[in-house]
Amino acid sequence: MANTPVINLRKGHAVRYNNDVCVVTETELKTPPRMASYVQMSIKSLVSGKVHNLRMTSNESLDSVILNKDAHEYSYKDGDGYHFLHPETYDDVTLNEDLIKDVKLYLLEGQKYLIVFTDDAVAGIELPPSMVMTIAEAPEGVKGDSANNVYKAAVTETGLTVQVPLFIGPGQKISIKTEDGTYLGKA
Fold it and tell me: Domain count of the chain?
C-alpha cells in the first residue's frame, strides 16, 4: 500500500478508509481566500455501499489500494452464498449476502459479472451498464391510458420491479439500466 496525497486522487481511484476499501466518486480542490486549500471528496465503500463525504487538507494522504477486476459467471446460490465461476480456470468464488445485497436482483445464471479483488480478497461486484431480463409478471394495460407515456410496475424473473410501458407483458425481454433500474427498451 502506498500513501497517496488526497490532492492527487481522481474519480475511480481506490483507497482504504476506516479499514474499508472505497472508490473515489467525486473530488474537488477548494482554495478559499485567506485560508488553506482543502480537498472535498466523496468515497463509496465497495462492501457496504455507504458514501463518505470527506474534507481533508491538501497535504493529507490516504492509503491507495490496487483493485483487480476479473470476469466471473454467476452459477447458483446455496447456504454458503452466491457462487461465481471463472470461465477459464473454473475457480469458484463465493460471495456472501453483504457483498451481494444491492445487486442480487440483477443476478442471472450464466451472466458474466466483474468481481473486484483487493489484496486477494473480494471487495465487491460490478454490474454491466445494462442487462436483458425477462418479464415474469405484468398487469394488463388499461385501455384509454395510452394518451401519455404511462408506465406500470412489472416484475422480472429475478424479482426486480421495473416501471415499463403498458404494452410490455409477461414473457417479453426488456433491457434495463443497472445503475438505477430503469427501463431502456425491448430487447
Answer: 3
Q: Are 25 and 13 in contact (CB under 8 A)?
A: no
**Same domain, residue pair 8 and 54:** yes
Same domain, residue pair 139 and 170 = yes
Domain of residue 154: give its range: 130-186
What whole-number distance in Å separates Cα of residue 132 and Cα of residue 56?
A: 42
Question: What pLDDT, in 10s, does the model give residues 105-150?
Answer: 999 999 999 998 887 678 788 889 999 999 999 888 666 555 567 8
Confidence band for 1, pLDDT divided at 50, 70 and 90: low
Domain of 75, CATH number, reads: 2.40.50.140
| Integer Cα distance of 56 and 110 in angstroms | 43
Closest CA to 75 of 39, 108, 37: 108
Same domain, 111 and 94: yes
Q: Is 108 exposed, middle or buried (0-12, 13-18, 19+ CB in 10 A)?
A: middle
- Give the model confidence (pLDDT) of 47-103 as tens digits: 777 899 999 998 899 998 888 889 999 999 998 889 999 989 888 898 888 778 888
